[in-house]
Amino acid sequence: MSVATATYLVRRAAQKERVRILYRRALKDTLNWAVHRHLFYEDADLLRARFETNKHVEDPDTIDRMIADGEVQYNKWRHPDPYIVPWAPGGSKFTRNPAPPEGIEIVYNYGREDND
Amino acid sequence: MALRAAVLRHVRVAVQTRGLESNPWFPSGSIRLMSSHDDHLTKEEVADRVLSVIKSFPKVDPSRVTPEVHFQKDLGLDSLDNVEIVMALEEEFKLEIPDKEADKIDSCNLAIEYIHNHPTVQLI
What we know:
The complex is a heterodimer. Chain A is mainly alpha-helical. In chain A, 53% of the residues lie in helices and 0% in strands. Chain A is elongated, with a radius of gyration of 25 Å. The N and C termini of chain A lie far apart (89 Å). Chain B is mainly α. Chain B has helices spanning 2-10, 43-55, 79-93, 99-104, 108-116. The radius of gyration of chain B is 23 Å and the shape is elongated. In chain B, 17% of the residues are buried. Classes of the chains: A mainly alpha, B mainly alpha. The A-B interface holds A 16-17, 19-21, 23-25, 27-28, 48, 51-52, 84-85, 87-89, 91, 93, 96-100, 108 and B 30, 34-38, 79-80, 82-84, 86-87, 90, 94-96, 99, 102-103, 120, 122. Chain A: Its main location: mitochondrion.
C-alpha cells in the first residue's frame, strides 16, 4: 500500500489539503466559541493535540475515514453566530459603501451660489 | 456685551493651515474616504506587519525571518503551523481569506503579495 505511485501521492495530497482546511475551520470555530484569548489558546492546544495524535497514519482509507469523522464532528460543533469580518461576504459592512465611480466628487462650496 | 464684541472685532488670531490634509494617517476632513475599499497600504508597511506577525509566532526563530522565507522549508514548520500563521495574518489585517486561497499561502512572498492585492486591507 505504500508504493509511491502517482495516484497514491495525488490521493494523499488531496487528503492533506482536506485536513488543512478542516483544521482551519475548526480553529476558527474554536475562536468563535471561546471568545476570550486565554481560553482560545488552551482550546487551540487541545485541538492541535487531537490532530497530532493521528499524524503518523499511512493508510489512505483509514485517513479518509478519520477525515470524514472529523468533518462530522466539526459540523456538529459549528457556532450559530460566527464572527465574520465586516467587509467579507456575510459581514455587516459588505457592499455598504462601495467605491464611487471615477470622476464623481463632492464640491465643498457650503451653499455658495454661482452669482455670489 | 458690547465691550466683548468690540474686543473681538479687534483681536485677530492667526489661522494656521494644518498640514495634516496630506498625511494619510490623520485625515482631517477634506479627504473623506467614501468607502472601505479606498484605503491602501504600501508594500513596505504590509511587509513590516507580516514580518512582525511571523516573528511573534512562538515556534519561529525570529532571527531567521526574511521577506523571502518559506514557512515549511526554511523555518521548519508544519502544515498545521502554516494554517495557524495564515489565521494570525487574517486577524492582523482583518481580512477574510477563502479556504482555497489560504491553503496556497506557503511563504512570506505569497502572503505579502496576496495581502497587498486584497481590496479591503485596513490601516488599523
